[in-house]
Amino acid sequence: SLLVFCSIYVVQTRSWSRPAAESGAMSSRLCGRALQTVRAPPAASSGRWTRTASSSSGRGSMNVFNREMKKRQRNWAAALRDGHQYDYLRDEVGSRVADRVYDIARTFPLALDIGAGKGHMAEHLHKDVVERLFLTDVSEKTLKQRKQTEIPTHCVLADEEFLPFKENTFDLVVSILWSLAVCCVTVQIQQVLKPDGVFIGAMVGGETLYELRCSLQLAETEREGGFSPHVSPYTAVTDLGNLLGQAGFNMLTVDTDDVQVHYPGITEVMTDLQGMGESNCAWNRKSMLHRDTILAAAAIYKEMYGNEDGSIPATFEILYMIGWKPHESQAKPAKRGSASVSFGDLSKLNQPPPPAQS
After folding, report:
1. pLDDT digits (tens, 9 = 90+) for 313-356
2. What is the pTM of this model?
3. What is the distance between the alpha carbons of residues 346 and 132, in angstroms, rounded to a whole number?
4. Tens of pLDDT along 284-308?
5. Residue 309: CB partners within 8 Å, gap ≥ 6?
6. In this structure, how many other beta carbons lie within 10 angstroms of the beta carbon of residue 126?
7. H or E stretch including 237?
8. Domain residues for 74?
9. In a domain, 113, yes or no
10. Number of domains in the chain
11. Residues 15, 313: contact at Cβ < 8 Å?
12. Is 111 a member of any domain?
């Protein structure tokens, strides 16, 4: 088996204050080849759109999130008149993922953007790097608001956890993940990639919104004698490499970047999360948050984390990942026991050679 290398880098925290026509459609023949008709037979496609069936209603042992609730949240957010003002985080992360695509010196004939939303990543890509692109999202209203791009695209209405594509279809898969069963998604991404295809993605990490979570827990414990989760659970960076390796990826790279956004108060934090369509959708969530608890949490938030100017920070830990589907052309580790130098001799490398004997 191939040896899995996982490099982890930590990038310096970034912070800031809150603040036309689409390219040509893909041919129906190409869309038909890409869509998987066995697992989720598509309904009749109209132009650039394809609808697929979804089996997200079932609650299995690995089903942490209510996918129907997430779909309603995303549709509600997409219906907001001022919804564009909540796109700042996805736009920023999308540009950083696109930068990682440009670091790979090749052209990708066919790519897939999972959970594309309004095309936060596609707008940063060029057709000389990605020739054709599939966009998928669980929210039809969100996809209809996708941004202009020069790449020929095709939109597929599908759940991120139930990809309706054939195996070995895409040369590149990109994604910005949020509240998802990552283990299920990465396995499906590995399947739809061609051999030697690459997955480049980003997701929120386990330290995301720790200020909000801590403030709500302390306030709810004081006012109600206990606390319930009000923020979605996230994946820890220490687990991400293992999840990608178990899904079948190799030559892994994982790096983290903390993005800090400053808000006037806790109400604005929760309002923006709702506007992003990223409120808690876990099955064990508590739907009611009492007014007294919110007021107490606001006071705790400002006391523990508040800035001198009266604003409060909200930290988003962004995990970036790169993984390759195995192929025979990729570099392989040397056979066990083939080394010609012992680790015990490494300390002697800088020592001067012994004097020559006459």
Report:
1. 999 999 999 999 998 888 777 778 787 777 777 777 777 777 77
2. 0.75
3. 49
4. 566 667 788 889 999 999 999 999 9
5. none
6. 12
7. helix 237-247
8. 6-328
9. yes
10. 1
11. yes
12. yes
